[in-house]
Structures are given as C-alpha cells and as structure tokens.
Specification:
By secondary structure, the protein is an alpha/beta fold. It has ten helices and 18 strands. The chain folds into two domains: about 170 residues, Quinone Oxidoreductase, Chain A, domain 1 (Alpha-Beta Complex); about 130 residues, Rossmann fold (3-Layer(aba) Sandwich). The strands form four sheets. Strands 3, 5, 6, 9, 10, 17 and 18 form a seven-stranded mixed sheet that branches. A six-stranded parallel sheet has the order 13-12-11-14-15-16, sandwiched between helices. A hairpin with a 2-residue loop joins β1 and β2. α4 crosses α5.
C-alpha cells in the first residue's frame, strides 16, 4: 500500500509499505481522510522523541472497515488505544491511563496510509450523509470539546465570556464549541491576519490581534489557551477574572509565563487538558454531523499524493487554513 512516511527531520516520502495485519480484537480500516495535526509537524521537525523515523504519522482519521463482519461500515477512528481493564479506564478517564498509546507512535503505525489497524472498540459509526473529510475532524474537535467542557464545568457559570488564544484547528474548534455550549461572547486572539479571517463570518465570535488590542485585565471568565506559549500564559494570567478558569491545551514546551501570585490571590483555576474521553469523542462527532459547529470552511483538502508538499507548505507558512485534511486519491480495493 502507499503511505506517507516520515524518514528524518523535515523529510517525508510517499512510498510503498506492507499492509498492516490486525491483531486480535482489531480490524483493518481503509483510510478515506486524515488530518495533519500540529503534533505531526512537531515530529516532522524532529522535536518528538516519541515519534522516531522512519514512521507513518497521522492519527486524525476516518475510513471504511476492510476486515471482519462489519466490513464496509464507515467509521471515525479514535486513535487513543488503552488497556480496557486499566483502573483509569474503569474510572472513566482513559485519556489519563498509563497504558495509553496512540496510532502514529511506535509500535502503532499511523493513518497517513491506505490502511491502518485499530481495535474495534475505538471505532464510531459515521452518520449517513456525513462526508469523510468532516468525519476526520472528529479527533481534533474532540480535543477542543474536552478542553471547553472541563473549563465550563470548573467555572460553573451561565453565559460566560470566553477567550480562545490561537486560531489553529484546536483554537478555531474551541471557539465554535464555546459558542455552541452557551458562551455569551467568544473572542479569538490571533496575531496572523489570515487566521483571524477564518471565523470572521461566524456570529458571536470576534477575532482580534492581541498585539493591537488589549481587552483589559479581568475581561474573561474562561480562557482556553490553544497555543501554550510564554506570551499566551502571561496574557491569560492577566485577562482572566478573579475566580475565573484558564484551560491550557497548547503543547508548546516550557513552564514560564504564569503569574502564580495573581492566580493564588484571585483563586483562579488553572487546568491542563489532554485528549478526550470516549464521551467527548462521540459528542464531537455528533456535533459535526448535526452542523452545530458552523460551515467548517477553515479546512483545506488535498490528496494523499500531495502530502509531501502539504508538509512543506505548512512548514513554510504557506497555508492559510487552520487544518489540512488529506484524502485518498481513489478508493482502494
């Protein structure tokens, strides 16, 4: 089969690799659409020791079951694989299980390929009428869903004022989800003018340039930091109101930036957010299928055969979309 393989720093090749063989409890899925994640770019730059070359990356995928009695069913892939008997899983928090593994990390090849193997318990049916490009957005949208959900649960306030920092895919989805979950106002801080335009037509969401506009201290009840840089941590510390909540979902390295004194004196809740629960994943898929998250015109689609160029374009900053989804050029038999 054809696969997009990470072979070294800033190096991707489209090449032939063996079709993976499902283990017990797994099925073979013919990939139809797969998104490029920021973590894929992190690996591409050689900054992720968990993803050594050579490796098939990609974990935001949807496809068609190609083996077993459910062959032919259209499915969204939850790429987070855990031991179902782990105490964390039994407690409803599989994303925090010490057994967690994700496709695109050894020993599990990823989904930038014609086929991928996955446990059957990790598959959700794609509703009729939902295209596979949209179904492939379920994983990144689930990340945002989880972040906004836990932030609102910790805040315990109706009609909150929400700030999302960063207009990448996670930030854009978080803004749309915050609106969907009842925020009275959603601001989106993004320095790149093209990214600010991605949601310019969405009612109730106001993008702004954080370098040119200061909302003022204590302006927001809930802040979703989808960047995780020193500057966004500093800004979040100042812009959140006393008793408010900051959810840190960005994965940039480093620990600097937070004003711990203000966080302490103003009883601000600071929470990390990682991945999602199965319930978050299912809710994200349902919201996408129902059209609850807007027009999704912040997504660009390219064929898998253009994957090498897609990585190069993302690396060079030549992509205005928040997400690139790679589609198979044609159905594979």
């Amino acid at each position: 089969m054809q696969a997009l393989v990470y072979t070294g720093v800033n190096q991707m090749v489209l090449t032939e690799v063996p079709v993976p063989v499902p283990a017990a409890g797994e099925v073979l899925v013919r990939v139809q659409a797969v998104g490029i994640c920021g973590s894929d770019m992190h690996a591409y730059h050689g900054h992720d020791a968990r993803r050594p070359a050579p490796l098939v990356l990609g974990h935001e995928a949807a496809g068609v079951i190609a083996s077993g009695h459910d062959a032919g069913a259209r499915v969204a892939i939850n790429p987070l694989v855990v031991d179902p008997d782990c105490p964390a899983v039994l407690a409803g928090r599989p994303h925090l299980s010490p057994t967690r593994a994700i496709i695109s990390m050894p020993p599990r090849p990823g989904a930038f390929a014609e086929y991928v193997t996955i446990p059957t318990r990790n598959l959700l049916p794609v509703p009729d009428g939902m295209d596979m490009r949209t179904a492939a957005l379920t994983e990144p949208v689930a990340v945002s869903w989880h972040a906004v959900r836990i932030g609102l649960e910790k805040l315990r306030q109706e009609n909150p004022r929400v700030l999302v920092q960063g207009a990448g895919a996670i930030g854009v989805a978080a803004a749309l989800i915050a609106r969907h979950m009842g925020a009275c106002a959603v601001d989106l801080a993004e320095p790149h003018p093209g990214r600010r335009e991605l949601l310019a037509g969405e009612a109730g969401i106001s993008p702004f340039d954080p370098g040119a506009h200061d909302p003022g201290e204590s302006a927001y009840d809930l802040i979703i930091d989808a960047v995780g840089a020193v500057a966004t941590r500093q800004a979040a510390s100042r812009l959140v109101r006393p008793g408010g909540v900051i959810v840190h979902v960005g994965l940039l390295p480093g620990q600097e930036g937070y004003d711990i004194r203000r966080i302490t004196l103003q009883e601000i809740t600071l929470s990390g957010s990682y991945c999602y629960t199965p319930e978050d994943f299912a809710a994200a898929l349902a919201a996408l299928a129902a059209g609850d998250l807007g027009k999704l015109d912040w997504v660009e689609t390219r064929p898998l055969s253009a994957g090498v160029a897609a990585f190069a374009d993302l690396d060079a900053g030549r992509v205005g979309a928040a997400k690139i989804v790679l589609e198979l050029d044609q159905p594979v038999t």
